[in-house]
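Form 12-C: Joint structure prediction
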Amino acid sequence: MERPTITEPGPLLLHFSSGEVRCESPNNKLDKFAGILTYKGKNYILDHDKLLLRGCVIRNTDWCYGLVIYTGPDTKLMQNCGKSTFKRTHIDHLMNVLVLWIFLFLGSMCFILAVGHGIWENKKGYYFQNFLPWKEYVSSSVVSAILMFWSYFIILNTVVPISLYVSVEIIRLGNSYYINWDRKMFYAPKNTPAQARTTTLNEELGQVKYVFSDKTGTLTQNIMIFKKCSINGTLYGDVYDKNGQRVEVSEKTEKVDFSYNKLADPKFSFYDKTLVEAVKRGDGRVHLFFLSLSLCHTVMSEEKVEGELVYQAQSPDEGALVTAARNFGFAFRSRTSETITVVEMGETKVYQLLAILDFDNVRKRMSVIVRTPEDRVMLFCKGADTIVCQLLHPSCRSLGDVTMEHLDADRACEVSPSLLSAHTHVFQDFAIEGLRTLMVAYRELDNAFFQAWSKKHSEACLSLEDRENKISNVSEEIEKDLMLLGATAIEDKLQDGVLETIITLNKAKIKMWTLTGDKQETAVNIAYACNIFEDEMDEIFIVEGKDDETIWQELRSARAKMKPESLLESDPVNSYLTMKPKMPFKIPEEVPNGNYGLVINGYSLAYALEGNLELELLRTACMCKAVICCRMTPLQKAQVVELVKRYKKVVTLAIGDGANDVSMIKAAHIGIGISGQEGMQAMLNSDYAFCQFHYLRRLLLVHGRWSYNRMCKFLSYFFYKNFVFTLVHFWYAFFSGFSAQTVYDTWFITFYNLVYTSLPVLGLSLFDQDVNETWSLRFPELYEPGQHNLYFNKKEFVKCLVHGIYSSFVLFFVPMGTVYNSVRSDGKEISDYQSFSLIVQTSLLWVVTMQIALETTYWTMISHFFIWGSLGFYFCVLFFLYSDGLCLMFPNVFQFLGVARNILKLPQLWLSLVLSVVLCMLPVIGYQFLKPLFWPVSVDKVIDRIHHCMRHPLPPPIRTKVKHASSRRSAYAFSHKQGFGALITSGKTMKGKPKKSSLLKK
Amino acid sequence: MYYGLSNFYQNHRRYVKSRDDSQLNGDSSALLNPSKECEPYRRNEDKPIAPCGAIANSMFNDTLELFLVGNASYPTLIPLKKKGIAWWTDKNVKFRNPPGGEPLAERFKGTTKPVNWVNPVYMLDPDSDNNGFINEDFIVWMRTAALPTFRKLYRLIERKSDLHPTLPAGQYYLNITYNYPVHSFDGRKRMILSTISWMGGKNPFLGIAYIAVGSISFLLGVVLLVINHKYRNSSNTADITI
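Section 2 - Result
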């Protein structure tokens, strides 16, 4: 539901029948709305500010009037969702192509045999009519040949693996259950297992090349934690043991006791006791620091039960800061449009709010001006370190340096080595830890000065033209000569294991793109924190142009640095593109000369996604190791995914948790929903769902890889098995007058795919693992073959075909040589058709069974049971089908009476069988042996290494510490948007009921 | 003693199908109403054919007699055993005459002989244990060959004692009563004498194949061993680190 909220509902009330709303037709623009409400002859303009999007929650509001504008699929959110398409894997498509190939192959075989039959009937059959007359409707050999074409079509149709589709579905279902059952992907706190919501995409999980990830809720928990602070040059927040060694904070670490403070938030935890001691000691600077935190913000508080404060903050960062101040004894209690009530160490004080100089992206700071109960006018300011530093009073220079050192340890070492020795510990760098920092400063204002300024300010506020610019100019006048108090560091808490997961995925050559609606600073900060961007990267390009030309320039120059030759005319991709092929084409992978990152803005992206820029964007972006797109609308996320999907022959995966990720989840080959706090939308539209980002590693590297390997093995084996089975008929045709005589007993034909060979291949494709999960995770390199689709492609299929032709050749001619003119030891001949069938079918079964035994790398009881059991079962069925009783009951159905008894005891059969098996296996074993030597794939080395490690177990790997950054970057990443400073000072929302204020939260 | 036919497609699909195993098994209803598979040798002059079908119809009916031309003026007939040439299962289980105590001719009443045959099925052999459907020549013929060139066991020449050779060296004389036409389809007839060992008759295929495959495997093994030694070192795995 989307409705315009009318902030002053009084006059309207509920008689709306006479009103009329005219608005734009449903569209997907989230930030635009235009409409006019006509009511009682008056026109009210409805704009974007008056629109609530579907899914929004109104806080702190008891009631409001609304009008539904769009419903159901017309809502802006649904318009942004993108189309649901039926997702199929690459292997599915390939399979369809191959089945088509097989049909052609079948047709050509039938054609050859039909022609052969025509010739045979002409040359021989015609004269053989004495013993075998033609059917009355056959007038000539041509007619016979035409009929024979269809006879062979029926006999040879087993090359078309109809049961393949069924088996594939079973395998996928099985592998989906593995995902559902995986205990290591079960999230105990929420009692939620991983969930494969579709069963058709499993093997594609083993081929992912691009991961598109949301940030908030996916990489991060969207929980802000007040981690550290630096007050007046002293660093608080680290915990040290008695020897002065820094201790990693863990669950066992003792928390600071806030019991002295009745208003403390029990969920807040802090570990450094020195800060509390400083507060209790009454350190003026520390008090001022927390006071400023409790004053300088736009948070609303709610106190439904006395003493239980609930803060409603527009950004979680602010909430964390105010909560921290509250716990340390400076609790922000309530506010009206003119006052802020703060409980200072148990003592309630009311500050008069004079002005809020609100936050915006250019200023990167906010200030409040208050009149204290002692009648001093104070300005409190917090903002980005880079900005605030320039505004400091010269007397704070040295303090500024120290604080900056806290923000950045490395520089501290360079500047003053003595400083390092003076402290017993090493500074922890806020920026490097991925903490979001803000500097806090204050200024005491002269009353007269403030009055003068206030006048200017209200003038600026009232001016009609260029208001924002004027306000910002006025603000700058007062925000200077600030006295530095310190800096805060807030941790945007990453989800568990994000860092390791991304490192592993990087090693597996999976490219990580972060698509977020957040601001650039926040996104980049998180990217560094979770290693998407590394400090070793050669360069990070930022595209933020506002028109085609600039963006084009930026993209080109980025590409010139990464791979200069890619701009030349002679570059294969360029020359290919200039040919302007009409067919959909794929851009090959291009390798840059280093590690690069790219940051692109939603605004620029809108241009870049249009027209001829999209190829530039794609080529540049795909050369980078990591890409961050910020300020994205949901639809843009989908567009980016579509772009990669369209021009790259790769598998894409999108992972997200919110409703704004739905379109991207739907667009990508594989969509993963994280069932987090942001509702079920993403999960319901996803193909796989789980609770933690780091399960992705397991999903891809273990389940995906296994599924892919199994599917590939299954397909090659399945095709092979059917080729061998069927092609024997082809060879036999040359000896049976092309008469469509089958080699095998009809029952064998019926049971072959259904009974004799179905279980082993299912066992293989459900249980096989070339290396176990530990190794899969330890050597992410093993993942690469899937990305290039090395294990099953058209080439592999042709290999199966050739292998099948060879095996069927052996399987026909070895038994033929064996039975030809040979007799038993009692003189009775064994060259009859039924004995021959039995020999061929038994050999065939042994060969395919040995083949599968050769392909099985992971032997379990089940695979032993399936493989050898199937073979044993074959002999049981054989004796049953050829038994006297059954054959006598239905002599015309079971014609092979006694054949098993008579033939299976022959040494010839077993000798011929062994020969067939050896001949069929030799080339395979030889090829498997030679392949890693002559045509090595990178994986072979890894597997070699693994085998080596298995034989000589190594000590567990020493965890190398994640290298820390070396470059200076600002850790400023306040997630605040332009806030409600204006709203608060206008006091509109607090009329009458100061406690209840309505906040529109998206 | 075998007879051999070549270019004779006993494995042609229509030929292989053209029989009624129920009838051959002595089923009385199938005797009078043979399966459709037997067409066009199902009925003749409104009477069901027994045994029906193209296979039975084309039964080999030459007679072969072997004489030893010794020093005596008239040759001695080598005794040929005509029983024991079919599989036991075929003779005793699969093929059965129609039930009943009467003479065979009575039991086959209401049927007619196959078109090409001279005598009806109940006159194949005077020995009642080798007559009708259980005639062993017939059974051997009905076990169709897998390949167009085949041999079928015709008679057994039994060794009388270990001291005397079964067929002593000397001149032999083969008397063929020529009934069976093969010229029309360019066929060939053969008569084969073969001595049986514990492994059956002479067929060098398996032996040769085993020797060939064995030597190939050995060679391959040596080659692979050499290659392994040469390449394993060069493609060592040192560049992969954990």
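Section 3 - Comments
Confidence is low (pLDDT under 50) at residues 235-242 of chain B. Chain B touches chain A through 75 residues (CB under 8 Å).
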